[in-house]
Design goal:
The protein is mostly helical. The protein has one domain: Helix Hairpins, CATH 1.10.287.3510. 77% of the residues lie in helices and 0% in strands. It is built from three helices and no strands. Helix 2 runs antiparallel to helix 3. It is elongated, with a radius of gyration of 17 Å. The termini are far apart. The mean pLDDT is 90.
Length: 101
């Protein structure tokens, strides 16, 4: 049984849409990070699906680079969230707007 590429693209579009919705509607910094991760994983699904369709390994190689980028993004994001929590006792992203000088 072979799963067609259209189904992977549909799954990827749904995941990307959920990620964009979460990014636009939430104020919690942790949910921001999770939404960005959903969007990156949706891109990975597309890369791997089209790589399998065309029969080469380029998409899977790029997918590994995206995973490394996601790991670095999480490390920096968690550091920012920890500083945000330490200063404001909350992870609401609208609070640092009061830090303007």
């Amino acid at each position: 049984m072979v799963v067609e590429t259209q189904y992977y693209v549909l799954l990827s579009a749904a995941m990307f849409s959920i990620g964009v919705f979460g990014l636009l509607t939430r104020r919690n910094a942790l949910r921001f990070l999770m939404s960005v991760e959903l969007m990156l994983n949706a891109a990975n699904i597309n890369l791997v699906a089209f790589s399998a369709q065309w029969g080469n390994m380029t998409g899977q190689t790029f997918s590994l680079f995206v995973l490394a980028l996601a790991a670095a993004e999480v490390a920096v994001g968690i550091g920012i969230i920890l500083v945000l929590f330490r200063n404001f006792r909350d992870v609401d992203v609208t609070e640092p707007a009061t830090m303007r000088w």
